[in-house]
Structure formats: C-alpha cells, structure tokens
Design brief:
The longest helix has 20 residues, at 83-102. This protein is mostly helical and 183 residues long. It has ten helices and no strands.
C-alpha cells in the first residue's frame, strides 16, 4: 500500500466537499485507482470505508476504470460489513449494473459470475439490517436485474410487500415506485 494514498484517505472526512477533493485527486492520478479498490475491500484497514466513499465519487466520472477490477470487486462484495462502506459500494453496484445493460461502447461488461455476485449482495443488503439508502440502491439494482432474470421480480415483490410496513418513508417511496413497475 502506498503511504501517499493512505495519507490522503486519513484526511478524508464525511463532508462532501472533502470527499470530492480527494476523488478529484484520484481522477487526476489514475495510478492510485487500483490501490483504492484494494483498500475498499480491506475491512481491517482504518481507511477502508473512506476509500469506498471516494470510489463512489470516482465511479460517477470514470466507471469504466473499474472494468479490469470487476472480478475482484464483485467477488468481495460479501466481505463488507461496515455500513459506511456498504452504502457507497451499493451505489457503485447500481451504476455498474445500469452500465452493463446500457450496451454502448463505454458500457461495463460483467460476466455471469459477476452478475450473480451482484444479485446475491443486493438481496443480502435488502434483507439484512442496513440503512435505508443501501436498501434503496439494492431495490433499484434488483429491479434492473429483474428485467433480465425472470425470478428476481417475484422475489423482490415478496420482500418489498412483506417489509413495507416496517420501514421509513424513504424506503416506502422506493418500494412503492418499484412495486408499481413490477405489478
């Protein structure tokens, strides 16, 4: 691990401007990207959740940088346990899935194994005790995937209907929007 990236990450705070500044430094220095991805999936590292925050912002600009790292990224989704790491990674998964099905020259290309790992992680995040933002990203990701895997929408529908009453207004809004599209 380069001490330079670790140093940058150690100064990251939850303030959006601060996270954007470090993401911009990564965008200007692509050679940090591979290490950034590795740090995201090093849960014992003290900066691992901060790396996930930065990866989310970098992915908005250069999602295609993730292409050579997709096998590593997708196979390690299940090791994430920290809520602060899972939320931004759930968003990156949503971006990756959207891109995969866009099918243009800059699209992300996922293998069947990658897709299965994204499905598994998204369902895990949806049914486990994580915050609403993570659940919302997972619902939207699974909705997209359900357009290509005919078993997903019925499963998603069951979970959303079962859990609907127990959740916040934000969860209900996303669930209602997706249920309307499925039914």
């Amino acid at each position: 691990m380069s001490s330079e990236l670790q140093l940058k990450l150690s100064y990251v705070t939850a303030y959006r401007e601060n996270r954007l500044k470090v993401a911009q430094e990564i965008l200007e220095n692509k050679f940090f990207f591979e290490e950034l991805v590795a740090v995201c999936f090093s849960p014992s590292g003290k900066n691992h959740h901060k790396a996930c925050w930065i990866l989310e912002f970098v992915s908005y600009e250069e999602l295609n940088w993730l292409q050579p790292h997709l096998d590593f990224f997708c196979s390690n989704l299940k090791i994430l346990k920290d809520e602060s790491a899972i939320r931004p990674i759930a968003k990156v998964v949503q971006l990756v899935i959207k891109s995969h099905y866009k099918k243009n020259e800059s699209s992300i290309l996922l293998s069947e194994t990658n897709l299965q790992e994204c499905i598994e992680a998204s369902f895990d995040w949806l049914i486990n005790d994580v915050k609403v933002a993570t659940k919302a990203y997972s619902i939207r990701t699974l909705y997209i995937l359900g357009n290509y895997y005919n078993w997903i929408h019925p499963e998603l529908q069951i979970i959303l209907n079962k859990d609907y009453a127990d959740h916040s207004a934000a969860y209900k809004a996303v669930a209602k929007e997706v249920l309307k599209k499925i039914e």
